[in-house]
Automatic annotation (TrEMBL):
<dbReference type="InterPro" id="IPR013096">
    <property type="entry name" value="Cupin_2"/>
</dbReference>
<feature type="domain" description="Cupin type-2">
    <location>
        <begin position="32"/>
        <end position="88"/>
    </location>
</feature>
<dbReference type="InterPro" id="IPR011051">
    <property type="entry name" value="RmlC_Cupin_sf"/>
</dbReference>
<dbReference type="InterPro" id="IPR025499">
    <property type="entry name" value="KdgF"/>
</dbReference>
<dbReference type="InterPro" id="IPR014710">
    <property type="entry name" value="RmlC-like_jellyroll"/>
</dbReference>
<protein>
    <submittedName>
        <fullName>Cupin domain-containing protein</fullName>
    </submittedName>
</protein>
<dbReference type="Pfam" id="PF07883">
    <property type="entry name" value="Cupin_2"/>
</dbReference>
<dbReference type="InterPro" id="IPR052535">
    <property type="entry name" value="Bacilysin_H2HPP_isomerase"/>
</dbReference>
Length: 108
């Protein structure tokens, strides 16, 4: 399967956050999320495993009881049901990989 960036849709989530759903099947999904400086990814949890790769920018991430500042090249793992969220310190882009697919994203 090939997914070309030009063929994907950019969704405005509001408050300085946009999302682009990339490749996905029943077991895995890749999502690009762009943040303006100061934008917040509110604390939340879900039943999916999630890897986040920081493509650009600077973020203060909270995962469970830990809080760290991350930058381009850093990777974060979120186990199912763990509370997590972030604040964007410098505008940037994250690449999120979920398993299984986030059906709620596809319905939005």
């Amino acid at each position: 399967m090939f997914i070309f960036h030009k063929d994907t849709q950019l969704d405005d989530l509001g408050n300085g956050v946009t999302r682009r759903i990339l490749a996905h099947d029943g077991k895995m999904m890749a999502v690009e999320v762009m943040f303006e400086q100061g934008a917040i990814g509110p604390m939340h949890n879900h039943p999916h495993e999630q890897l986040t790769y920081v493509l650009s920018g600077e973020f203060e991430f909270t995962i469970g009881d830990e809080k760290h500042i991350v930058t381009a090249g850093d990777t974060l793992y979120k186990q199912p049901h763990i509370m997590h969220g972030c604040v964007c310190l410098k505008a940037g882009t994250l690449l999120d990989t979920f398993t299984p697919v986030r059906e709620d994203f596809l319905k939005a």
